[in-house]
Amino acid sequence: MQSNDSQTTKAQLVMAWGFVGIPLLWGISQTLLNALQLFK
Amino acid sequence: MATQTENWFSRSRTVARPGYSRWMVPPAALCVHLCIGQAYAYSVFNLPMTKLIGITDSAPDDWKLTELGWIFSIAIFFLGVASAVFGRWVEEGGPRKAMFTAACCWAGGFLISAAGVATHNLWLIYLGYGFLGGIALGIGYISPVSTLIKWFPDRPGMATGMAIMGFGGGAFIASPLSVWLMKQFTTETHIGVMETFIVLGVVYFVFMVVGSIIVRVPPDDWKPEGYVAPKANKLISSNNVYVYDALKTPQFWLIWVVLCVNTTAGIGVLGQASAMSQEMFPGQITPIAAAGLVGLMSLFNMGGRFAWATTSDYLGRRNTYFVFMVLGFILYCLVPYMGSIGSVAGFALCFCIIISMYGGGFATVPAYLRDMFGVRYVGAIHGLLLTAWSAAGIFGPVLVNYIREYNVTHNVPKADAYNTTMYIMAGLFVIGLICNFFVKAVNERYHMKVDDRAMSAATA
């Protein structure tokens, strides 16, 4: 069995979560702006 | 030591070393689920694809909406087929191989579809997005499930909820991104669907491959620091059930019905919310406001996946489904009343909670299966269970559309045309409640023996 030799750093965690989190937050903000039409 | 058949994709090459943070796995899973969640936003291409020749209006040779509707249906059909057929392969091959395969199929589907648009050949799009994309959906959807459950034995609901939340959230990114891309590539003589497909295919491939690179499986018998296994509980099994033996248990089929009921109730209103809200509240809800309601429901669909699945770690899986069934019954009975008193806020609140439970049902079910059948084949069993989704995809819209049509043709006012459907949905929740009540611990004779475990480990 061959294992991977990487130790997770905080920077890697931030990058990984930012990689998926930023596009998701952008998408949610766009949807929220559209949803506000319901209350106008 | 690596064997000759081992390569970068092999499960054994993804085993984490000490020091690897399990919090890297949810973003890896989200890389895949956020991409394949694009499927929920596919409809943004429908109208532009009816004007590829006529540009401003549909020409006689342009594709019809009814023909284009098949693309999504084929994709969802093959999602169910692929998750059922490839479930065991995904489980035994490991998440990296599955995620990379899903990336190739997903990106390949977009590129073939782009060729279909360029040559105006609809069959190529059926083959690309429908068939190949559907396989990517099935494999991609189940690929991180068991890995997440193994990394988070203390909070399996939260872990799978995070990934499956991504499937709900993928549309939030895909919808505005696709509209923006089409705008960039559209000219006075050309609609930029083909270029948008190519860009999306490349971007999604990169995202999904990043997920396959950073994903790791925990070493055998790994446990999080300070983890204490839950006290003996009949509804949380420490034994594993082989994937095809699970099909012989009543528990599998009871949970299948429960998921089907929950999905039928949600999918029926999710697809028709815009038209339904405008017809139930004529003059009060405009088309723009209806679109806002659909967006709001989508947010609850995504949020419910995380919130309900996390809650299930504390409430227990069966109790969470009891809440879905009882609350669903009450809310569906309340919807006609909200219509009769003209309460838009009450109507929106009812549907938002219903949709949160629709998403929550999807996100909680992997942990429910893990509790019943153990962790070894949970991804594969989950794949088989997703056939309930395919069935609900037929039942839900049929119940809403056909009963409405029947009522309208029998002179029922449009504002009241959905009431019967609401009461039928409420009745479905009673069936789900009964099925959920009968879910008990799996009989010992279905548990994998030590020899079976050794054999399955050898094939992994």
Topology overview:
The complex is a heterodimer of chains A (about 40) and B (about 450).
Chain A (H helix, E strand, L loop, with lengths): L9 H26 L5
Chain B lengths: L24 H12 L9 H4 L15 H21 L1 H7 L1 H24 L3 H21 L2 H7 L4 H30 L7 H22 L28 H4 L3 H31 L6 H29 L1 H24 L3 H30 L4 H8 L1 H23 L9 H19 L12 H10 L1
Helix pairs in contact in B: 1-8, 1-9, 3-6, 3-15, 3-16, 4-5, 4-15, 5-6, 5-9, 7-8, 8-9, 8-12, 8-14, 11-12, 11-13, 11-14, 11-16, 11-17, 12-13, 12-14, 13-14, 13-17, 14-15, 16-17
Short structural description:
The complex is a heterodimer of chains A (40) and B (460). By secondary structure, chain A is mainly α. Chain A has one helix spanning 10-35.
Structural class based on helices, strands and sheet pairing of chain A: mainly alpha
* Biggest β-sheet description of chain A: none
Strand content of chain A: under 5%
Largest interface: A-B, 30 and 45 residues
* Helix-strand string of chain A: H
Overall geometry of chain B: globular
User: Count of helices of chain A?
Assistant: 1
Mean pLDDT of chain B: 90
Task: Give the overall average pLDDT of chain A.
Answer: 83
Strand percentage of chain B lies at under 5%
The major sheet of chain B is characterized as: none
Shape of chain A: rod-shaped
Compute the number of strand runs of chain A.
0
Kindly report the oligomeric state of this protein.
heterodimer
Please give the share of residues in helix of chain A. Answer: 55-70%
Order of helices and strands of chain B: HHHHHHHHHHHHHHHHHH
Please bin the fraction of helical residues of chain B: over 70%
Work out the helix count of chain B. 18
DSSP strand count of chain B: 0
Question: What's the N-to-C terminus distance of chain B?
Answer: 16 Å
